[in-house]
Design goal:
By secondary structure, this protein is an alpha+beta fold. The protein has helices spanning 22-33, 66-70, 86-95, 154-165, 215-224; strands spanning 2-3, 11-19, 36-39, 48-53, 56-63, 76-82, 99-107, 111-117, 123-129, 137-138, 144-151, 168-171, 180-184, 187-194, 205-211, 228-236, 239-245, 251-257. The chain has an 8-stranded mixed β-sheet, with helices on one face. It has an 8-stranded mixed β-sheet with strand order 12-13-14-11-15-18-17-16, with helices on one face. The protein has a two-stranded antiparallel sheet with strand order 1-10. Strand 8 (111-117) and strand 9 (123-129) form a beta hairpin. The longest helix has 12 residues, at 22-33.
Protein backbone atom coordinates (compact mmCIF):
# COMPACT_ATOMS: atom_id res chain seq x y z
CA UNK A 1 0.00 0.00 0.00
CA UNK A 2 1.54 3.32 -1.15
CA UNK A 3 0.58 5.72 1.61
CA UNK A 4 1.77 9.32 1.74
CA UNK A 5 2.47 11.66 4.64
CA UNK A 6 3.98 14.43 2.53
CA UNK A 7 5.22 15.46 -0.92
CA UNK A 8 8.45 17.01 -2.14
CA UNK A 9 8.60 20.42 -3.75
CA UNK A 10 7.76 19.95 -7.43
CA UNK A 11 5.91 16.63 -6.97
CA UNK A 12 2.28 15.99 -7.95
CA UNK A 13 0.22 15.74 -4.77
CA UNK A 14 -3.50 15.89 -5.53
CA UNK A 15 -6.14 15.59 -8.22
CA UNK A 16 -9.68 16.87 -8.23
CA UNK A 17 -12.61 17.11 -10.57
CA UNK A 18 -14.52 20.25 -11.50
CA UNK A 19 -17.98 18.88 -12.29
CA UNK A 20 -21.25 20.34 -13.52
CA UNK A 21 -23.21 18.19 -11.05
CA UNK A 22 -21.32 17.35 -7.86
CA UNK A 23 -23.83 14.79 -6.60
CA UNK A 24 -23.94 12.96 -9.93
CA UNK A 25 -20.15 12.90 -10.21
CA UNK A 26 -19.80 11.63 -6.64
CA UNK A 27 -22.21 8.78 -7.33
CA UNK A 28 -20.40 7.74 -10.53
CA UNK A 29 -16.89 7.64 -9.06
CA UNK A 30 -17.95 5.97 -5.82
CA UNK A 31 -19.66 3.23 -7.84
CA UNK A 32 -16.69 2.89 -10.20
CA UNK A 33 -13.83 2.83 -7.69
CA UNK A 34 -15.47 1.89 -4.39
CA UNK A 35 -14.82 5.34 -2.95
CA UNK A 36 -16.83 7.07 -0.24
CA UNK A 37 -17.65 10.77 -0.52
CA UNK A 38 -17.61 13.25 2.36
CA UNK A 39 -18.85 16.82 1.93
CA UNK A 40 -16.44 19.38 3.37
CA UNK A 41 -17.32 22.39 5.48
CA UNK A 42 -16.08 25.20 3.23
CA UNK A 43 -17.29 27.94 5.58
CA UNK A 44 -19.61 29.42 2.97
CA UNK A 45 -17.31 28.71 0.01
CA UNK A 46 -18.12 26.59 -3.05
CA UNK A 47 -19.27 23.01 -2.33
CA UNK A 48 -16.42 20.50 -2.20
CA UNK A 49 -16.31 16.76 -1.52
CA UNK A 50 -13.41 14.51 -0.58
CA UNK A 51 -13.22 10.97 -1.98
CA UNK A 52 -11.76 8.30 0.27
CA UNK A 53 -10.76 4.67 -0.14
CA UNK A 54 -11.07 3.22 3.34
CA UNK A 55 -9.93 6.05 5.59
CA UNK A 56 -7.41 7.51 3.11
CA UNK A 57 -7.98 10.66 1.06
CA UNK A 58 -7.83 9.85 -2.66
CA UNK A 59 -9.12 12.86 -4.63
CA UNK A 60 -11.70 15.65 -4.55
CA UNK A 61 -14.60 17.08 -6.52
CA UNK A 62 -16.08 20.55 -6.68
CA UNK A 63 -19.02 21.98 -8.62
CA UNK A 64 -18.74 24.67 -11.27
CA UNK A 65 -20.33 28.00 -10.48
CA UNK A 66 -23.09 29.37 -12.70
CA UNK A 67 -20.66 31.46 -14.75
CA UNK A 68 -18.53 28.41 -15.54
CA UNK A 69 -21.59 26.40 -16.51
CA UNK A 70 -23.02 29.10 -18.75
CA UNK A 71 -19.65 29.56 -20.50
CA UNK A 72 -19.76 25.95 -21.67
CA UNK A 73 -16.65 25.00 -19.71
CA UNK A 74 -16.24 21.21 -19.85
CA UNK A 75 -15.85 19.14 -16.67
CA UNK A 76 -12.16 18.43 -16.11
CA UNK A 77 -9.77 16.61 -13.80
CA UNK A 78 -7.16 18.97 -12.34
CA UNK A 79 -3.56 18.12 -11.38
CA UNK A 80 -1.89 19.78 -8.37
CA UNK A 81 1.85 20.17 -7.78
CA UNK A 82 3.16 20.65 -4.25
CA UNK A 83 5.47 23.65 -3.74
CA UNK A 84 7.32 25.07 -0.76
CA UNK A 85 6.73 28.71 -1.71
CA UNK A 86 3.65 29.27 -3.83
CA UNK A 87 4.17 33.01 -4.26
CA UNK A 88 7.70 32.58 -5.57
CA UNK A 89 6.68 29.70 -7.84
CA UNK A 90 3.75 31.65 -9.28
CA UNK A 91 6.03 34.57 -10.05
CA UNK A 92 8.48 32.22 -11.71
CA UNK A 93 5.70 30.75 -13.90
CA UNK A 94 5.08 34.19 -15.39
CA UNK A 95 8.80 34.83 -15.87
CA UNK A 96 9.09 31.58 -17.84
CA UNK A 97 6.30 32.49 -20.27
CA UNK A 98 3.44 30.73 -18.50
CA UNK A 99 0.14 32.25 -17.43
CA UNK A 100 -1.31 33.01 -14.03
CA UNK A 101 -5.01 32.13 -14.11
CA UNK A 102 -5.61 32.65 -10.38
CA UNK A 103 -3.21 34.25 -7.93
CA UNK A 104 -2.44 32.24 -4.78
CA UNK A 105 -5.08 32.28 -2.06
CA UNK A 106 -5.52 30.41 1.20
CA UNK A 107 -8.22 27.78 1.67
CA UNK A 108 -8.95 27.85 5.40
CA UNK A 109 -6.23 25.80 7.13
CA UNK A 110 -5.91 23.28 4.28
CA UNK A 111 -3.29 25.14 2.28
CA UNK A 112 -2.66 27.78 -0.37
CA UNK A 113 -3.71 27.27 -3.98
CA UNK A 114 -2.97 28.97 -7.29
CA UNK A 115 -3.95 28.12 -10.86
CA UNK A 116 -1.39 28.58 -13.64
CA UNK A 117 -0.65 27.49 -17.20
CA UNK A 118 2.63 26.36 -18.70
CA UNK A 119 4.26 27.92 -21.74
CA UNK A 120 2.16 25.72 -24.07
CA UNK A 121 -1.14 26.56 -22.38
CA UNK A 122 -1.64 23.44 -20.24
CA UNK A 123 -3.34 24.42 -16.98
CA UNK A 124 -2.34 22.99 -13.59
CA UNK A 125 -2.64 23.98 -9.95
CA UNK A 126 0.03 24.84 -7.39
CA UNK A 127 -0.47 23.72 -3.79
CA UNK A 128 1.40 24.84 -0.69
CA UNK A 129 0.12 22.56 2.08
CA UNK A 130 -0.76 23.54 5.60
CA UNK A 131 -2.94 20.76 7.05
CA UNK A 132 -3.88 19.05 3.76
CA UNK A 133 -0.83 17.43 2.14
CA UNK A 134 -2.80 15.92 -0.75
CA UNK A 135 -3.63 12.28 -1.47
CA UNK A 136 -2.89 9.89 1.38
CA UNK A 137 -3.00 6.77 -0.83
CA UNK A 138 -1.62 6.52 -4.36
CA UNK A 139 -0.65 3.87 -6.93
CA UNK A 140 -2.94 1.16 -5.51
CA UNK A 141 -6.03 -0.02 -7.45
CA UNK A 142 -8.78 2.54 -6.98
CA UNK A 143 -6.36 5.42 -6.47
CA UNK A 144 -4.62 8.06 -8.54
CA UNK A 145 -1.36 6.83 -10.07
CA UNK A 146 -0.03 9.11 -12.85
CA UNK A 147 -0.22 12.55 -14.49
CA UNK A 148 0.50 13.01 -18.17
CA UNK A 149 1.01 16.12 -20.26
CA UNK A 150 -0.35 16.19 -23.80
CA UNK A 151 1.29 19.15 -25.50
CA UNK A 152 1.58 20.74 -28.91
CA UNK A 153 5.15 21.86 -28.18
CA UNK A 154 7.34 19.29 -26.45
CA UNK A 155 10.47 21.44 -26.57
CA UNK A 156 8.77 24.44 -24.97
CA UNK A 157 7.18 22.27 -22.28
CA UNK A 158 10.47 20.54 -21.50
CA UNK A 159 12.23 23.87 -21.08
CA UNK A 160 9.41 25.35 -18.96
CA UNK A 161 9.17 22.51 -16.44
CA UNK A 162 12.92 22.06 -16.36
CA UNK A 163 13.40 25.69 -15.37
CA UNK A 164 10.42 25.78 -12.99
CA UNK A 165 10.80 22.48 -11.11
CA UNK A 166 14.12 21.05 -12.23
CA UNK A 167 12.42 18.23 -14.12
CA UNK A 168 14.24 16.41 -16.90
CA UNK A 169 12.48 14.74 -19.84
CA UNK A 170 13.72 11.19 -20.49
CA UNK A 171 12.70 9.63 -23.79
CA UNK A 172 11.16 6.16 -23.60
CA UNK A 173 13.00 3.80 -25.89
CA UNK A 174 10.98 1.71 -28.30
CA UNK A 175 7.70 3.55 -27.67
CA UNK A 176 5.12 3.27 -30.45
CA UNK A 177 4.68 7.04 -30.29
CA UNK A 178 7.16 9.54 -28.82
CA UNK A 179 6.95 9.54 -25.02
CA UNK A 180 8.97 11.06 -22.21
CA UNK A 181 8.97 10.52 -18.46
CA UNK A 182 9.43 13.66 -16.37
CA UNK A 183 11.94 13.02 -13.62
CA UNK A 184 13.88 14.66 -10.82
CA UNK A 185 16.37 13.09 -8.42
CA UNK A 186 15.76 9.66 -10.03
CA UNK A 187 12.03 9.86 -9.25
CA UNK A 188 9.50 9.60 -12.07
CA UNK A 189 7.00 12.40 -11.58
CA UNK A 190 4.84 12.24 -14.70
CA UNK A 191 4.78 11.69 -18.43
CA UNK A 192 4.66 13.76 -21.60
CA UNK A 193 3.57 13.07 -25.15
CA UNK A 194 2.93 15.20 -28.24
CA UNK A 195 -0.64 15.91 -29.26
CA UNK A 196 -1.53 13.45 -32.03
CA UNK A 197 -3.71 14.31 -35.07
CA UNK A 198 -6.38 11.82 -34.01
CA UNK A 199 -6.87 13.74 -30.76
CA UNK A 200 -8.57 16.51 -32.69
CA UNK A 201 -8.62 20.14 -31.63
CA UNK A 202 -7.83 19.66 -27.94
CA UNK A 203 -5.60 22.19 -26.18
CA UNK A 204 -2.40 21.22 -24.39
CA UNK A 205 -3.52 19.67 -21.11
CA UNK A 206 -2.64 17.48 -18.13
CA UNK A 207 -4.49 14.17 -17.86
CA UNK A 208 -5.03 11.94 -14.82
CA UNK A 209 -4.69 8.16 -14.48
CA UNK A 210 -6.35 5.88 -11.93
CA UNK A 211 -5.14 2.34 -11.24
CA UNK A 212 -7.52 -0.63 -11.56
CA UNK A 213 -7.15 -4.37 -11.03
CA UNK A 214 -8.90 -5.40 -14.27
CA UNK A 215 -8.77 -2.92 -17.16
CA UNK A 216 -11.48 -4.64 -19.19
CA UNK A 217 -13.93 -4.94 -16.30
CA UNK A 218 -13.32 -1.37 -15.17
CA UNK A 219 -13.71 0.01 -18.69
CA UNK A 220 -16.96 -1.86 -19.15
CA UNK A 221 -18.16 -0.62 -15.77
CA UNK A 222 -17.69 2.96 -16.97
CA UNK A 223 -20.26 2.39 -19.72
CA UNK A 224 -22.64 0.59 -17.35
CA UNK A 225 -22.59 3.69 -15.15
CA UNK A 226 -23.37 6.02 -18.06
CA UNK A 227 -19.85 7.02 -19.11
CA UNK A 228 -18.16 6.52 -22.45
CA UNK A 229 -15.09 4.77 -23.85
CA UNK A 230 -12.85 7.17 -25.76
CA UNK A 231 -10.18 4.55 -26.44
CA UNK A 232 -10.59 0.85 -25.61
CA UNK A 233 -7.91 -0.95 -23.60
CA UNK A 234 -4.50 -1.19 -25.25
CA UNK A 235 -1.10 -2.40 -24.14
CA UNK A 236 1.82 -0.17 -23.14
CA UNK A 237 5.20 -0.94 -21.59
CA UNK A 238 3.87 -0.76 -18.01
CA UNK A 239 0.48 -2.43 -18.45
CA UNK A 240 -2.85 -1.78 -20.15
CA UNK A 241 -4.59 1.58 -20.54
CA UNK A 242 -7.99 2.81 -21.59
CA UNK A 243 -9.25 6.37 -22.04
CA UNK A 244 -12.78 7.00 -20.78
CA UNK A 245 -15.12 9.79 -19.78
CA UNK A 246 -17.69 10.11 -17.02
CA UNK A 247 -21.39 10.82 -17.76
CA UNK A 248 -20.72 14.58 -17.62
CA UNK A 249 -17.86 14.36 -20.14
CA UNK A 250 -14.76 14.57 -17.92
CA UNK A 251 -11.99 12.51 -19.54
CA UNK A 252 -9.60 10.36 -17.50
CA UNK A 253 -7.43 7.28 -17.96
CA UNK A 254 -7.57 3.83 -16.41
CA UNK A 255 -4.45 1.71 -16.08
CA UNK A 256 -3.85 -1.88 -15.05
CA UNK A 257 -0.19 -1.98 -14.02
CA UNK A 258 1.99 -4.98 -14.84
CA UNK A 259 5.07 -3.47 -13.18
CA UNK A 260 5.30 -1.92 -9.71
CA UNK A 261 4.48 1.78 -9.59
CA UNK A 262 7.08 4.16 -8.21
CA UNK A 263 6.65 4.91 -4.52
Amino acid sequence: MATRTGYADGQFCWVDLMARDLAGASSFYCDLFGWTATAQDTEGGPPYTIFRLGDKRIAGVGEMNDEMKSSGMPPIWNSYISVDDINATTKRVAELGGGVMMEPFQIMQAGKMGIVADATGAVFSLWQPIEHIGAELVNDPGSWVWNELITDNVDAATKFYGNLFGWSAVAEEGAAIPYWTLERDNRRLGGMMPKMPEMGDIPSCWTVYFAVEDIHAATERVTQLGGNICQPPFEVSVGHISVVSDPQGAVFDLIQMTVPADD
